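Sample intake sheet
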Amino acid sequence: MLALFVCGCGYSAHLPTLGVFDSPVPPETLPNPIYVNSHHRDFLWNQVVDSVDDHFRIKQERRVRQIGNILTDGQLDTFPGVGSTYLEPWRGDSASGYEKAHATLQTIRRQAVVTVAPDRHGYFIEVTVLKELEAVTSPEFASSGQLMPRHDNSLVTRRNIRGATRRTGGGNQGWIPLGRDFQLEQKILTDIHGRLADDQAGSNL
């Protein structure tokens, strides 16, 4: 297991990686987007935010608003977050099983976008969770290669390299897209659906 962990943390363009494709879809799934029959848009939005906040840090919110006789779409964006591992059972951003194992063996980060689209009698809620793999040439905590001599006899440390990358790189530099995390999407959708079940029942009376 230790050998797998050390090997899995590194990335090479010449080697296959875990989870290059979208994560497995759970056998029993909710539609995505789900439809919620509700007339209480502020309550609905607050429940969506509260559910997503259990898994990610919220970056920005654009609530559903009424402009004249038209309701605008709402959207919620999160910051990218490094996925939790088996050593962090209290965190819920990595679904159990495949996704948790993947995040344990390699550095994975996720980012969510949730859209709320008004319909005649309710709202369509769509959850999209995107995964990315950190592109590193060797395990982050490996001791070999920490100090690299240059032609002028000075030393370049791994810390200096990472610092330069942070200063000059964009938001996605150093990360490889892995597709969508369907398991976490379903986890969030199920939580939102459960939170709004009573509100839907009241709307049907």
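Comment: The CA atoms of residues 161 and 167 lie 10 Å apart. The chain has a mean pLDDT of 74.
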